[in-house]
Amino acid sequence: MDDSHILLCEDREAVRVLTLNRPSARNCLSMDLMGALHGAVTEAGENDAVRAVVLTGAGPAFSSGHDLKELTAHRNDEDRGRAFYAETMGACSDMMLAIVRSPKPVIAAVNGIATAAGCQLVASCDLAIASVDARFATPGVNIGLFCSTPMVALSRNVSRKGAMEMLLLGDMVDAQDAHAMGLVNRVVEADRVVNEAVEFGRRIADKPSRTLKIGKEAFYKQLEMPLEDAYRYAAQVMVENMLDAEAEEGIGAFLDKREPNWPR
């Protein structure tokens, strides 16, 4: 693969595979690549033919994080780069939120390294499959730039102590340790990582679509609530879900001992 198209798109039945395609730059997240990914995730979320999204990287890396060359080039701006840095961090946060807020499940297929904002990207996805040689890090502390925005996603996926160890030491974490920490769901051989993620997507695609949308939105909303508020909110979601045609069909099929015929 070359870098002529920075984001590749392939549909495997109902699963859309998006491939970060800057292999010569370890798929670092330039403004252009973040914009392309944001747009592609949004489009997939609005496309009824797409039921799940797989995100992976071309070449030996998933993503090495922000494009430091692009950021450094703006140090000579009149404001020493402040406006561009604010624009970049805002664009990155918006892109990560687009993944979280997408009505379609997004699955990371992690090949090679996922560092800094690349690790943040993995943590922002709903599920993650890692190759046995995948490695993860938030190494900004080693170059004087604490991984503050990656910290947001990381701290919502792993334990506090685990997140702080990654953030304070900046060391690489191998795939098995990332699995033990809860950063990834599965570890597979490198040649299977994308296919395994697509298979996850295909299994999800067989589930009722509105139910998935309701559930994903509720999952992330309740995480930010106090316990009592979370139960109150989740109870309201369950009531509305019960009234949906998918729940009516699914429960009816279960009671009738037949396969459900999901409304489309």
TrEMBL record:
GO BP annotations, alphabetical order: fatty acid metabolic process
Gene Ontology MF, one: hydro-lyase activity
Top-level taxonomic group: Bacteria
Cited CDD domains: crotonase-like (cd06558)
Pfam families per UniProt: ECH_1
Keyword Transit peptide annotated: yes
Keywords for this protein: Fatty acid metabolism, Lipid metabolism, Transit peptide
Record flagged with keyword Transport: no
Biological role stated in the UniProt entry: May play a role in fatty acid biosynthesis and insulin sensitivity.
Protein family according to the UniProt entry: Belongs to the enoyl-CoA hydratase/isomerase family.
This protein's name: Enoyl-CoA hydratase domain-containing protein 3, mitochondrial
Source organism of the structure: Methyloceanibacter marginalis
